[in-house]
Design brief:
The protein has 324 residues and is an alpha/beta fold. The protein has a single domain (2-232, 266-286, 302-316), classed as TIM Barrel. The protein has helices at 32-45, 59-71, 93-107, 145-157, 171-178, 201-209, 240-249, 253-263, 275-282, 291-298, 314-317, and strands at 2-4, 8-10, 16-18, 20-23, 49-51, 81-86, 112-117, 161-167, 189-193, 213-217, 267-270. Strands 4-5-6-7-8-9-10-11 form an 8-stranded parallel barrel, surrounded by 5 helices. The chain starts with a strand and ends in a 7-residue tail after the last helix. InterPro entries: AKR (IPR020471), AKR1C (IPR044482), Aldo/ket_reductase_CS (IPR018170), NAD(P)_OxRdtase_dom_sf (IPR036812), NADP_OxRdtase_dom (IPR023210).
Amino acid sequence: MELKQSHSVRLNDGHLMPMLGFGTYAPDHTPKSKAGEATKVAIDVGFRHIDAAFFYQNEEELGKVIREKIADGTVKREDIFYTTKLWTTFFRPELVRPALERSLKKLQLDYVDLFIIHNPLAMKSGEELLPKDASGNIIFDTVDLRDTREALEKCKDAGLTKSIGVSNFNRKLLELILNQPGLKYKPTCNQVECHPYLNQSKLLEFCKSRDIVLVAYSALASHRDPNWMDPDSPHLLEEPTLKSIAKKHNRSPGQVALCYQLQRGVVVLAKSFSEKRIKENFQVFDFELTPEDMQAIDGLNRNFRYAKLQLQTEKHIFPKSGRQ
């Protein structure tokens, strides 16, 4: 993993990804305009890596802000690293490119910088984001992830995205892709939940060994959407160890949690819709944690997940009758 220019990492396909990204997900009750307003602040503060997704349903607002910031001279298009994600109802290969084209149309941009598989849970195709049966259970689909990924390669070849990657993949799923016959492009990154209570050290080690960048979401665990998180979950930023280290460096616990990831070589996403917090989250490149600090934070790992994603089963990953 090679660091280049203004705190960026060079991906295995040669493109640069800024190490610090701005997350744009918000729960349903938050107006979509808030994501646009926050992204505008983030770009003005200095964020150049914008992490979004079709599932977030706010790409029109984000595209408008990005185009405004280009028009007023704050940034050029090539300064912005924009990520979107393939939602799980579009895993059938013939649906992949139209899904990306739909995002590009909403954004009114010619390309995205990164297009990733949002998670390995293939769901029933259609317009419903979360298709459910009469009992309220998610309706899954059986799609070979390797076929889906090949369709992402074609999007890269067509110039619709600069890079491709995955999200929420474990080592077994990454190996499924990496061992795929005829693999043209390795995933550049794997975006997963990662924070001091879930430091993903083994997955990070594996990704580094394969030149895949680990990208951390829920890095501050401050977003407590009851749809995805148990409200009784511990508050990471109230963790005494983080507060103690923060006090020593005259920083906030959030800044310490972000710096921890950066020093491990993890690209980290920080999400906030508060102007004060957005500014604070960007101020993480001008101090350094000591080896003792890093060891103390490593010691907080308890393999605790905030995001309560339904676990994928083998039969949903690829058909038994399909390719082996």
